[in-house]
């Protein structure tokens, strides 16, 4: 009670100045933002000056290479180039179209390294084409990096996904019976249109376009995979695979029966047709 009484008796002006001004918490972030903008402006001017000097020199001359080394050193400074997280989540604008590709974490370092290396090659080769009136050099560089990220993502991730598909298709094939081996050999060597029907889909992990043939689905089923296993292994949307099998499964069964192999309707049990019994 005594403490409360003292607070009430405190002069209004003294009470006001002893309380913390809520705006004080905003001062430091604002100062940092101003400094960040100032540093960014200085960086852009430094890059622009280097590029203008390089344009005045013969490419690959000693002075030109010295300036290039300075330029690349600045570009490798943290915060100058967009990080892979920025490229993934903000997306990349190409021909006024925003493209967003999320790279699986296990491949990000490899994708970013390739994108950065290819971007530097393009920057060096096209430095005379840089137009400062259209964009800052930093913006121009990061636009190139973004395009190269898309290319590297598609090249690396697609190749790895295809390798995973091939690994899945060859899963445990050594444990097949002689009849199953004959069936596998027939499916692998068949060049007919039916078994080569493709299923195109968007890989749910990598967001890259994937493609698998009907014969490849049959081979995975032959190796003991269930539909849910195939979906999980190749990250195929559930409805895409089930609809694909419903549309083409019975036709594939009939086709294989005509060629001497009998499938059960679930396409998971196989047996060679006994021609002597059918005669």
Describe it for me?
There is one protein chain. This protein is mainly alpha-helical and 279 residues long. The protein folds into 2 domains: 108 residues, no CATH class; 104 residues, no CATH class. Helices cover 63% and strands 8% of the residues. The protein contains 12 helices and 6 strands. The strands form 3 sheets. Strands 1-2 form a two-stranded antiparallel ribbon. Strands 3-4 form a two-stranded antiparallel sheet. Strands 5-6 form a two-stranded antiparallel ribbon. Strand 3 and strand 4 form a beta hairpin. Helix 6 crosses helix 7 and helix 8 runs antiparallel to helix 9. The chain is elongated, with a radius of gyration of 32 Å. The N and C termini lie far apart (109 Å). The C terminus is likely disordered.
Question: Any key phrases for this structure?
Answer:
mainly alpha; 2 domains; two-stranded antiparallel ribbon; two-stranded antiparallel sheet; 6 strands
Helix content: 55-70%
Radius of gyration: 32 Å
Secondary-structure-derived class: mainly alpha
Average residue-wise pLDDT: 75
Main β-sheet description: 2 strands, antiparallel
Strand content: 5-15%
Q: Rough shape?
A: elongated
**How many discrete domains?**
2
Number of strands: 6
Order of helices and strands: HHHHHEEHHHEEHHHEEH
Uncertain residue segments: 26-35, 168-174, 265-279
Report how far apart the termini are.
109 Å
What's the helix count? 12
Spatial order of the strands in the main sheet?
1-2
């Amino acid at each position: 009670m005594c403490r409360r009484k003292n607070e009430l008796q405190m002069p209004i002006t003294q009470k006001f100045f002893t309380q913390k001004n809520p705006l004080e918490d905003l001062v430091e972030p604002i100062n940092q933002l101003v400094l960040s903008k100032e540093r960014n402006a200085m960086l852009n001017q430094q890059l622009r000056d280097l590029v203008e000097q390089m344009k005045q020199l013969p490419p690959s001359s000693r002075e030109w290479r010295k300036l290039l080394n300075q330029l690349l050193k600045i570009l490798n400074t943290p915060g100058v180039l967009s990080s892979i997280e920025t490229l993934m989540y903000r997306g990349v604008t190409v021909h006024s179209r925003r493209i967003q590709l999320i790279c699986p974490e296990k491949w990000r370092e490899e994708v970013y390294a390739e994108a950065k290396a290819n971007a530097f090659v393009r920057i060096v080769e096209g430095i005379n084409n840089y137009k400062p009136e259209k964009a800052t050099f930093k913006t121009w560089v990061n636009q190139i990096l973004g395009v190269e990220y898309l290319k590297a993502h598609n090249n690396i991730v697609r190749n790895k996904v295809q390798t995973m598909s091939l690994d899945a298709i060859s899963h445990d094939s050594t444990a097949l019976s002689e009849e199953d081996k004959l069936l596998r050999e027939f499916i692998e060597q068949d060049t007919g249109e039916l078994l080569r029907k493709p299923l195109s889909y968007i890989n749910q992990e990598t967001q890259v376009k994937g493609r698998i043939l009907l014969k490849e689905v049959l081979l995975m089923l032959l190796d003991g995979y269930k539909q849910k296993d195939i979906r999980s292994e190749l990250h195929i949307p559930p409805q895409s695979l089930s609809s694909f099998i419903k549309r083409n499964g019975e036709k594939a069964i009939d086709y294989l029966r005509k060629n001497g192999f009998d499938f059960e309707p679930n396409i998971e049990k196989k047996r060679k047709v006994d021609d002597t019994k059918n005669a």
